[in-house]
Write a structure and sequence with these properties.
alpha+beta, Dihydrolipoamide Transferase, four-stranded antiparallel sheet, E3-bd_dom_sf
């Protein structure tokens, strides 16, 4: 897996975790706001009951206190997950909405206050049942939020895996999102072809086009190293700089993205040797190897899935290279 893909994985994972935390915080905030609003209504009911009815007042006060213990547990969960601010903002919004609704019902509560005094014992029992139902609802909401966070994380892992498959042997230059919500990845493969890949919101391959080759780009700098090899620096339209080591015939012997434009610069010796062998440094052993199809890695994978013979396809990419679009066209007709 290349450094570009690893970097992309990290970005997707960070975005997914942030989205999951926002969802988790909003869920807890809504539950907390509902509990705060219900507690306020019980406090208003307590004010309507005369102090002479001490038993009824004590029971209702116990219910009010139970709400505080429940919201305290929610606050601890929010703090442990680092979403305290989100929970507080959402909870305040829920309380404001509930207060608007409660204002319209204040008159009805006051009219029923006399009847509530006569049946304080029954009202206390009903209030206790309502408090138990609210606690059950809070527990269920927390469980549902946790379950949905897990689903989001699983989807993120699937998307990262598909992105890696759609960039075989390549390095990511840029990634953007179009008006349709599709991800547009611009990458360069080991042969120097610039490949634009379109993925849907689930990370599935939608389209692939070869936008050109690095050797066609205008040089930004050009030097000859100590070994007498030509080293050319070009700039992609995404703004990424790429260093090319060119052979006498102008072919690409090696390419790399300089540290100044790549977040992760560590390269293993094994991957460097493999790239050199694939691009013309293999000697006698390479001369004896059978040359593979002139197709992108994603096109080869799609052809294998659909049972399409690449030798029967004329590529539309640079230098006749076969893309996924060519494979799909051959399969359809």
């Amino acid at each position: 897996m290349t450094e570009g893909v690893q970097n992309l994985q990290q970005q997707i994972q960070e975005q997914t975790v942030n989205s999951a935390k926002d969802f988790y915080g909003d869920s807890l905030g809504q539950v907390k706001g509902q509990l705060d609003s219900s507690r306020s209504q019980l406090e208003e009911l307590l004010e309507q009951i005369p102090e002479s009815q001490e038993d009824a007042r004590n029971e209702i006060q116990g219910l009010i206190d139970s709400y505080e213990s429940i919201t305290g547990a929610l606050d601890e969960a929010a703090e442990s997950q680092g979403v305290t601010d989100t929970v507080q903002e959402t909870a305040q919004g829920a309380v404001d909405q509930a207060q608007q609704a409660a204002d319209g019902a204040v008159g009805q509560v006051q009219d029923a206050a006399g009847q509530a005094q006569e049946a304080a014992g029954d009202a206390a029992g009903q209030a206790q049942e309502a408090a138990g139902g609210a606690a059950d609802a809070a527990t269920g909401a927390v469980g549902q939020a946790t379950e949905q966070v897990g689903e989001v994380a699983d989807q993120a892992q699937d998307t990262v895996g598909q992105v890696a498959e759609n960039l075989p042997g390549g390095q990511l230059l840029s990634q953007t999102t179009n008006d349709a919500g599709e991800t547009i990845q611009r990458a360069v493969d080991e042969s120097g072809d610039i490949v634009e890949t379109t993925l849907d919101d689930a990370g599935n391959l939608v389209n692939e086009d070869i936008a050109g080759n690095l050797t066609d780009l205008e040089p930004v700098n050009e030097i000859t190293n100590e070994a007498g090899e030509l080293v050319r620096t070009v700039k992609d339209e995404s703004g990424t700089l790429i260093e090319l080591k060119l052979g006498d015939d102008g072919s690409i012997l090696d390419l790399q993205i300089p540290p100044s434009t790549e977040e992760v610069t560590e390269e293993t010796e094994e991957s460097s040797e493999e790239t050199t062998q694939q691009q013309g440094g293999g000697g006698e052993e390479e001369e004896g190897e059978e040359e593979g199809p002139n197709a992108t890695g994603a096109a080869q994978q799609k052809a294998e899935e659909m049972g399409v013979d690449l030798s029967q396809i004329e590529g539309s990419g640079a230098g006749g290279r076969i893309t996924v679009k060519d494979v799909l066209g051959a399969a359809q007709g």
